[in-house]
User: Fold these one by one.
Assistant:
Number 1:
Amino acid sequence: MNTEFSSKAVLEAIRSVVQSDNTTISLHEPKLAGNEWTYVKECLDSGWVSSVGKFVDRFEDDLAAYTGAKRAIAVVNGTAALHICLILSGVVPGDEVLIPALTFIATANAVSYCGAVPHFIDSEEKTLGVDPGKLAAYLEDIAEQRQDGCYNRITGRRIKTLVPMHTFGHPLDIEPLIKICADFRIELVEDAAESFGSFYKGRHTGTFGRLAALSFNGNKIMTTGGGGAILTDDEELGRMAKHLTTTAKIPHRWEFNHDMIGYNYRLPNINAALGCAQLEQLSAFLDNKRALAGRYAQAFSEVPGVRFVREPEYCRSNYWLNAIILDEDFRNMRDEILEVTNSAGIMTRPAWTLMHRLPMFTDCPHMNLTISKSLVRRLVNIPSSAGLV
Ligand SMILES: *Cc1c(COP(=O)(O)O)cnc(C)c1O
């Protein structure tokens, strides 16, 4: 047992869990061990590979049933899902949208696609998601209510929507955010791209906001190759989401009429076929990931100076992507850990570069980001494939 912190101790802890046989261990690999072949073959045999087909309908119904959302609309990827969620939440060009600085680029890109300005907010150490207390205090400071919503007194722009993100699959503290959004008249859209299969107080993430985006990219907990979905409990928004993502075509037996500028964002049937097969295996993936996380937690409990990220209280996380966080005392060790593990064939990665540091977003407004900055310095993602156990 190691009694002192060292990058070697971190490497050994990971090795004790993933049992390296000298092949490279990737950060996250999909597992395609179910009915994928059968369902995709069915698409090929029937010719229904593209934008309509029975797997799209089935996938949407299955997603709604699993998450408890009234409607699920399958789309080409999670970024497209976020784009449509933002439009439907009422974001128009010139608005500001509050998003965490600690997120994947897709959240900020989707805001930009709307002609809106991302406004970066801080996260909390416990959940790695938006810090409700800090956000409320910040809004007290900068927000001003006008007839058509909440305004940023400093920039003069309307703050239309908040997009919290459930980082690495760990549900953030969503309840206080619902209240903050109601108090300040801000719309709530969840970026649940990483948290499919994660629950907050028994309810699926992505069912708290007016709308939410899921992703089924190749590196997510389950995959459709590329894909995503929009969740909503609002029938009218669900109808609009389907309409907007299918070129806003007015249904007719032969005529081509469109009543607004829509998007070609629908998920092809062949991808939905993969999704149906993956969804059948989701509970097995979740069990494997929980077991893997349990083993990591055990291994890292013996490494001083390192915290293995566990699910927050009241939550059930999908443990999509595991992470360790170094104590402040060892904050300069991150790069050495990345070096030692990757050289040993174990793929590890740092967290994303914070959004306000990227060249296209340096001029965007942001609050004090102390915790996000500290987290990025100290966080390392470690191998998390469901196939590792
Ligand atoms: C994966 C991801 C998305 C969406 O990604 P796509 O690759 O477009 O499906 C959005 N937000 C976050 C935080 C993600 O991790």
Number 2:
Amino acid sequence: MIPFLDLKAINAQYRHDLIDAATRVIDSGWYIQGTELKAFESDFAAYCGAQHCIGVANGLDALTLTLRAWKELGKLKEGDEIIVPANTYIASILAITENRLQPVLVEPDEHTYNLCPTKTAAVITANTKAILAVHLYGQLAPMPELMALADEHGLLVLEDSAQAHGAAINGKKAGSWGHASGFSFYPGKNLGALGDAGAVTTNDDELATIIRALGNYGSQKKYENLYQGVNSRLDEMQAAMLRVKLQHLDTETQRRKEIALAYAKGITHPALSQPITAHSTLTSLENHVFHLYVIRTAEREALQTHLANTGVQTLIHYPIPPHQQQAYAKWNEQSCPLTEAMHQQVLSLPISPVMTDDQVDAVIAACNSFEMP
Ligand SMILES: *Cc1c(COP(=O)(O)O)cnc(C)c1O
């Protein structure tokens, strides 16, 4: 079986360095808010081209705490409308509703799965205060256009960069476009820890200070609490793991792109649509880091069964859109036909830096041998 994502093999590549890093943390006697976190924050801010990086417990908290910090700063208030793609992973929406802000679900671009500037502009009202731009599947949202739109209307922009570490447009990376950006280092993400971890990047000094306080009980100085904060910190052990893995991120991304290119060229089945990138041709690929390689077909169930029978594990990202979840029962009647069609048709092929060329060829052959029911 070709696994969808072989995390064990990915981390085994760095086994010695990871063990050295873990040993360093164990022997330091200091496990929270120490030198590993400081070093990782500084490395990751530099990697993204942002002034600040604030480590937090996970990607959801990165988004939630940023919106919360804007509320503390008086830039957002309860009930404000936040535009977000209807087809995103539920975490983007949870961060909005947790803050009692109002998500405005907008249908994505049909080809890129990301926000479309025209459709986004069409839902801006006097109550709109921010855009949550999700870089879905690893492809950067159209940030030049979205930032121009936000400037025109005085909106905040929060990037959800959980799937897009290192994706760029004109050399400018995810995490440096919006007023702030949330990252996840969940083990399966392109930059994955060996547990939960996340971070916010921003160029805003004041915002950075408040997020840092919010994630540490609302405190900047021990035992003095400015806010009713939470405990959301990136611990020393995960920071040490991430420092090791950050050094290999670009090499791993390169391999993901090679595999994506091989799929794009090799899969010729007429009933399977390939992911299309908006800002680069498939030979430059700057704006897509292929966290996922998502194809579409009206015969998804049959294709998934065929691939499984041929020894190829696939997953669906995602089977149920947020507005059809029980958690958001009040939106269940809302109609988002494009989003709903995507959720019925998308299928994610295996893509990971440790796949061999033979495995890539086997996936291509399995796709091309699919017989329509
Ligand atoms: C993974 C993910 C998150 C949440 O990150 P966690 O670290 O799992 O909390 C948020 N948004 C998107 C798009 C994601 O893929």
